[in-house]
């Protein structure tokens, strides 16, 4: 498998005059060409910061303290080493991102035409007419047939589903190698959700775009992804194929997550949820395994020593002391 994005040992710290501690630690991810890769985790697990780090959009108080993020396109580059200007050429062109709430990405003051074609103005040398035609074609592809009318509209005049379609059109118009989708359907109606996921799937197939899907919803991962990394408190705790994760979850956290979707009640409400909360970054500085406080199988060692990420089965890694031989745990 050839790789498009290779994240190695990524760590992110908060650094201000008052605070200095780790948030994201030792993330390793490899996203293959045309692959649909999911990151799943509860709120606060570090999914969004990982995607912002890839886009070089981390807020100033956060910095990458270790690791590399290599984009393996024609001219391979470590994204963490690029200047702001160099990164502008990567964003929108080689990597695009769609957000949960399109209003944060769309400017209320400009028409859809202006915003959709902005990416082309920046990254291509197409004529005005060519850009317009490509824009309309792209809107057609995302299921918007009244393109000319929509061109003249402002974001607030469109429904949430329409705005999300426009944002997908914007993200894919330059045929990026990687599309990062951060909770792309969470703010949408259930009926529209499936349409938008299908649409992203179809477009990524035709354009050979890999997708990094960021979500708290294992159902979305099951529907759209081939591989998955489960994040907990700033670390990846399990990584494997989606099929294997659902069939054979190894980490107690993943087992809890799966249990909670298995017990969905009549109104889509979970009957089981993992007791307790994700610790905050200041809390987990002193912890061994960051899940120890909520884990039903926690042993003494879990509270004091961090487990390694271990290949428990072929192509299946998990970060838990339960996978280590008892003798080795008590050494
Ligand atoms: N600017 C910041 N300064 C300090 N801590 C931050 C900052 N931004 C995020 N964090 C912390 O980093 C951790 C990870 O946040 P992140 O937004 O990546 O989580 P998430 O999994 O994407 O959650 P959500 O689904 O709610 O967006 C959280 O504990 C959060 O409080």
From TrEMBL:
Subcellular location(s) per record: Cell membrane
Membrane topology listed for this record: Peripheral membrane protein
Single Gene Ontology MF annotation: ATP binding
InterPro entries, per database record: AAA+_ATPase (IPR003593), ABC_Ni/Peptide_Import (IPR050388), ABC_transporter-like_ATP-bd (IPR003439), ABC_transporter-like_CS (IPR017871), Oligopep_ABC_C (IPR013563), P-loop_NTPase (IPR027417)
Protein keywords: ATP-binding, Cell membrane, Membrane, Nucleotide-binding, Transport
Residues annotated as domain ABC transporter: 5-258
Family the entry assigns: Belongs to the ABC transporter superfamily.
UniProt name for this protein: ABC transporter ATP-binding protein
Organism field: Thalassobacillus hwangdonensis
